[in-house]
Design brief:
- With 274 residues, the chain is α/β, with parallel strands linked by helices.
- The chain has one domain: 2-enoyl-CoA Hydratase, Chain A, domain 1.
- The chain has a six-stranded mixed sheet, with helices on both faces. It has a three-stranded mixed sheet with strand order 5-7-8.
- Strand 2, helix 1 and strand 3 form a beta-alpha-beta unit.
- The protein is globular and about 60 Å long.
């Protein structure tokens, strides 16, 4: 079967009954735009009815997985459109957790922002010994909304997730592995994904699918709750439209002062209180 996408590079691997999906915008570190989001939704929808595919390797073309959302595209979005975008992204992550295939995310040299949240939807995360992940959503003016708080806390522990997020920390592969964000670290000479795919190929398909469903059921109450509260706080922060600003590159711009949040919420949503 041929997969024709503008932002994804997709290939079937018949020998391991797997599919390789590479985010394909290397000119800007594979940033996620609306077109890529739609194409991922379509591909994952296709996978739900193709149980003969055992596994999905999600990665990026080039040396980097993803630097998150396309900031230029976000800068021209209205608040309403931004919220709809975030809801779709959240559903994409939860959909990954529900897919019958085992999803392996190869971060290669690393990721940042919403690229990190996309990686959280995988069952297994791999990265090179030189991999680094930047938890820099707050620097870009938004609250993580698709697992960057709840799922990250489940995978790596609440204290660690709080530290990484609240200090906008860039974390090394060693710390990522020691705190269970990365499940395996490999050198550039190793073929870590192929080794994992061979092990998955040896599994009984029905047992594999049911095991993934059981793991999901074990966290479902917390997962549902975390997505709900992440949406609430993320949408509240959007009232400031800070995601359109970039004080680091443009000294004339500045983020909204904390004291101004109440006025922003009151003016745009009078029924809301802080």
């Amino acid at each position: 079967m041929n997969f024709n996408y503008n932002t994804l590079q997709v290939t079937l691997q018949k020998e391991t009954r797997s599919i390789n999906v590479a985010l394909n915008r290397p000119e800007n570190q594979n940033r996620i735009n609306i077109e890529m989001l739609f194409e991922l939704e379509g591909l994952f929808g296709w996978l739900t009815s193709h149980l003969e595919v055992n596994a999905v390797v999600l990665t990026g073309t080039g040396e980097f997985f993803s630097a998150g959302f396309d900031q230029d595209e976000l800068a021209i979005m209205s608040e309403e459109k931004m919220q709809k975008y975030m809801v779709r992204f959240q559903k994409l992550i939860s959909g990954m957790l529900c897919l019958p295939q085992t999803i392996i995310c190869d971060l290669k040299e690393g990721c940042s922002g919403m690229g990190m949240e996309l990686a959280l939807g995988a069952d297994i995360r791999l990265g090179r010994t030189t991999c680094k992940v930047s938890f820099d959503s707050l620097n870009k003016g938004w609250v993580p909304c698709a697992g960057g708080i709840g799922l990250l806390s489940l995978w790596s522990g609440h204290a660690t997730a709080r530290n990484w997020t609240m200090t906008s920390k860039t974390v090394s592969s060693e710390d990522l592995f020691n705190n269970s964000f990365l499940n395996e670290v490999y050198s550039t000479s190793e073929n870590a994904t192929d080794n994992a795919l061979q092990r998955i190929l040896a599994q009984a398909p029905v047992a594999r699918i049911q095991a993934k469903r059981a793991f999901l059921e074990a966290i479902m109450p917390e997962l549902t709750r975390s997505f709900e509260f992440e949406s609430i706080f993320s949408f509240s922060a959007m009232k400031t439209e800070d995601w359109k600003k970039n004080p680091t590159e443009n000294p004339d711009e500045s983020f909204t002062a904390a004291r101004e949040l109440a006025e922003a919420l009151k003016s745009k949503s009078p029924e809301m209180t802080v």
